[in-house]
Amino acid sequence: MKKTLLLAILLALAVPLMAEDTYQVVTKDNEVTDINQVQVQRLQDAQIATVYTVRSLTNERQALLADIAIKQARVVEINALLAKVAAEAAKVKLAEPATKP
Fold first, then answer.
1. Which residues contact 25 (CB under 8 A, 6 or more apart)?
2. d(CA 46, CA 26)
3. Is the confidence at residue 9, as pLDDT, over 80?
4. Residues 25, 28, 31, 35: what is their CA dihedral angle, to the nearest 10 degrees?
5. Structural domain boundaries in the chain
């Protein structure tokens, strides 16, 4: 009798533990689905959004690097022009007659 009562109590305690709680929700498409499925979909959507963000940042970085390269090329061009001006100035200085006051 005691064993049967003990077994009945253990079964009464174990049944709720074995039962899996399932919650269903209605999605925006009026479909009834399991809450776990909705959470998985949200995680997948978040992953996709993260990938797009990374791609966007990568494209932005590449655009900035291209802009920097263009500006560096302009600086090199300006330095070359300054070197030409300095060379011409040196030629003019050498060509001037040395006059004493």
1. 32, 33, 34, 35, 38
2. 20
3. no
4. -30
5. 21-95
6 C-beta neighbours (distance < 10 Å), count: 10
Bridge partner residues of 34 (DSSP): 24
What does residue 34 show for φ and ψ, rounded to 5 degrees? -75, 140
pLDDT (0 to 100) of residue 68? 95
Whether residue 73 contacts residue 65, with contact meaning beta carbons closer than 8 Å, is answered with no
Look-up: residue for tokens 């064993």? 3
Q: What is the rounded distance in angstroms from the CA atom of residue 63 to the CA atom of residue 57?
A: 10
Q: How far apart are CA 51 and CA 59, in angstroms?
A: 12
Could you tell me the pTM of the whole model?
0.46
Q: Quick check: helix, strand or coil at residue 25?
A: strand
**pLDDT tens readout for residues 70-92:** 999 999 999 999 999 999 888 87
The total number of residues shown for the chain amounts to 101
| Element housing 17 (H / E) | helix 2-18
